[in-house]
Amino acid sequence: MKLNELRDNDGATKSRKRIGRGIGSGKGKTGGRGVNGQKSRSGVAINGFEGGQMPIYRRLPKRGFNNIFAKDFNVVSLGRLQTAVDAKKLDAKKVVDATALKAAGVIRREKDGVRVLSDGELKAKLKLEVAGASKTAIEKIEKAGGTVKVLATAAEAAE
User: Fold this and answer.
1) Burial grade of 84 (CB within 10 A; 0-12, 13-18, 19 or more)
2) How wide is the angle at C-alpha 109 spanned by C-alphas 81 and 91, nearest 5°?
3) pLDDT-based confidence at 44, cuts 50/70/90?
4) Domain-wise residue ranges, the chain
5) CATH architecture assigned to 74-158
6) 153 - beta bridge partners?
7) CA 121, 137, 123 angle in degrees (round to 5)?
């Protein structure tokens, strides 16, 4: 077999249906769109339009709000930290902070800081500098012989 002899199996590719080419083609007149009128034209966006009646999304009251000051933390579990230490991606002797976690591939990007949660077991003695940690996570880290320093986030430090 040579490169110039390569080709698809018979019937592997179907030729496209030519629409709007007369009634005999099976896709003539309305071109598969079903109706004449507004819906048969291009550039129609009538989702949510209720024929002049007040649409439901305007009849119903708005609820809730979006807090623009909310912090978005990277959540990291103790089990994930232990996995990174076992894989020799995290150095247990150095300080573990957001930059070290990013370099190790534990988090993808540094958001408003890292928050450590207590899922999993931790055997390594880690020195953590994070934006937050749960009580049980702090207990587990200190039980393993490590320390936790909770940092003020960049926004709090600016105030």
Assistant:
1) buried
2) 35
3) confident
4) 19-64, 74-158
5) Ribosomal Protein L15; Chain: K; domain 2 (3.100)
6) none
7) 30
Q: CA–CA separation, 157 vs 155, rounded Å?
A: 5
**How confident is the model over 87-139, as pLDDT tens digits?**
999 998 899 999 999 999 999 999 999 999 999 999 989 999 999 999 999 99
Contact 93, 60 (CB under 8 A): no
pLDDT at 153 over 60: no
| The amino acid at 139 | E
3-state secondary structure the chain: CCHHHCCCCCCCCCCCCCCCCCHHHCCCCCCCCCCCCHHHCCCCCCCCCCCCCCCHHHHCCCCCCCCCCCCCCEEEEHHHHHHHHHCCCCCCCCEECHHHHHHHCCCCCCCCCEEEECCCCCCCCCEEEECEECHHHHHHHHHCCCEEEECCCHHHHHC
Question: How far is Cα 120 from Cα 83, in angstroms, rounded to an integer?
Answer: 10
pLDDT value of position 34: 87
